[in-house]
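User: I'm putting together a teaching handout on how multi-component assemblies are represented. Below are the sequence lines for each component of a complex, exactly as they appear in our records. Could you produce the 3D structure of the whole assembly as structure tokens, so the students can see both representations side by side? Please keep the chain order the same as the input.
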Amino acid sequence: MALLALSGLVAVSLVLSLGLGAVSLTPSQVVDVLASHLPWGEPVEGVHATIVWDLRLARALLAALIGAGLAAAGAAFQGLFRNPLADPFIVGASGGAALGATLAITAGLRWSGAGFGPVPLAAFVGTLLAVALVYAVAETGGHAPAVALLLAGAALSTILSAAVSLLMLLNDRALHEVFTWLLGGLGGRSWPHLRASVPYLLIGLASLWLMARPLDALASGEETAQSLGLRLPHARGAIVAAASLTTAAAVAVGGIIGFVGLIAPHAARLLFGADHHRLIPASALLGALLLLLADDLARTVLAPVELPVGIVTALLGGPFFLYLLKTRQRELGG
Amino acid sequence: MITLEAQDITCAYDGRPVLEELCLAVRSGEVTALIGPNGVGKTTLLRAMARLLEPRQGSVLLAGRDLRDMSSKAVAQQLGLAPQAETASWPITVERAVSLGRAPHRGWLLPFSAEDRAIVEGILQQTGLVPLRERRVTELSGGEQRRVILARVLAQQPEVLLLDEPTAYLDLKYQTEILELVSRLAHEDKLAVVISLHDLNLAALYADRVALLSEGALQAVGAPSEVLTPERLTQVYGVPVVVTRHPVSDTPLVMPVANGTSSHKRVSES
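Assistant: Of course. Below is the structure of the complete assembly, with chains in the same order as your input.
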């Protein structure tokens, strides 16, 4: 019930977001355009249709989906590691994505595949490779203990970010492009980006939701999960894989957008509790809402200049997180 | 009728042997209490019997089948373990934590059925957790957390119940309640129950059999009055004890012989 209300809120924000911009539109104008694309809808011609459908809708949907993906992945990692500071990038995803994207930009790669252009493809592959490497390092005898995963993730992230810095120093022509990408942003994203990332994001989100019960069991302790017949290596591997696929798809098209995957799960836990069958969808919806609103700000605050949305999420999300930490320590579940 | 049988098992941590060629069989309808000083391997034995630790040598048989040849799921459908070390570190709700006990039967992905919910409901009532169902497990007292753990194991509807220190952190009332419940499960529902206990008197009061573990081996197994003798306990625990009888149940009652400050009392009474 509360989840339905939250879904409604996301839908309303989506409509409002579509009206925001250089040309502002009323919600009813937006709804008219959206309705015209329904099979029974009446066609709407003209500039409004172009603005809403061709220019704004894909980006807004992408913001919502990326926010949802990062938040659900963050919720899963927090549950898996029983660590409220875990985020989607905890096992090396951001380092892999950053190095992949930086390589693609500095080397001027022109490869594309899986529907992605060169930079998103490299970021996507980089994320998955980094997580796979972390997992391989942490694994001993078919078993990757949580602490080993965290440490390996931290170490690899440091190594990869050093490599990114080196590449940036050596290629100062590409500096601005790399830097902008690293900050995370949705400027210029449209239908091809959405089409490329949607399958991975949706599969990732659905898999994370399916992992709710194993996550609940792991939250009760590894010994307990095992005594309930959960095969830890499989469960942990499946959770890391689902969360990383989701993160990789989000990072590929949006760059490294911080804080959404940390804060949305916290807020979701405060509002909906920590049982993962509710927490995963609640985190996804809150993440969608947060990134939609953050992207609205990124587009409009300094218009016509666009801010990278990662700066907005960090500037707003960081203080909010500190506030939570100060006032609601107990509920943070640490 | 189900039996769980450890046959000549040897277990080691980091090469250090903890249990050596140990044999123990438990049967339906009986409560077996595992006693012994700290660090003798009670938890290790329970973990090995629950398939959480593979013995280096020997095997554990559940209804005649080697645990090694069974899937984790099949084991979890018949055997429930309440670990000692579990502390709630993530704030899931009591009801959710208890319903996890249905996972071995329902699987990890399918939604719980009406039957699962009814079973969980019955167990919440049986363990007095109904008023706490929406609470987060991290907010509970140590005793309440122990009850949640026991409830989850009961939701597994196991035929064999292994409880590691189920009465730790509990006050007298809850200790008694848990042991009464365990005793009913063994005697009425015909479960095979193994509990590790520190309190020798509670072991004597509630267990049908007592297994005394020390130095990696069972020193004695049998009825409480056979196993709990002053000579044996003095030797195993390294402190002098006296054993009298419980005035009501006539089971053994073990008391340390106090040295030092109170020795004059002993003299004055004699």
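A couple of points students might notice: Chain B has one domain: 3-269. Residues 3-269 of chain B form a domain with the Rossmann fold fold (CATH 3.40.50.300).
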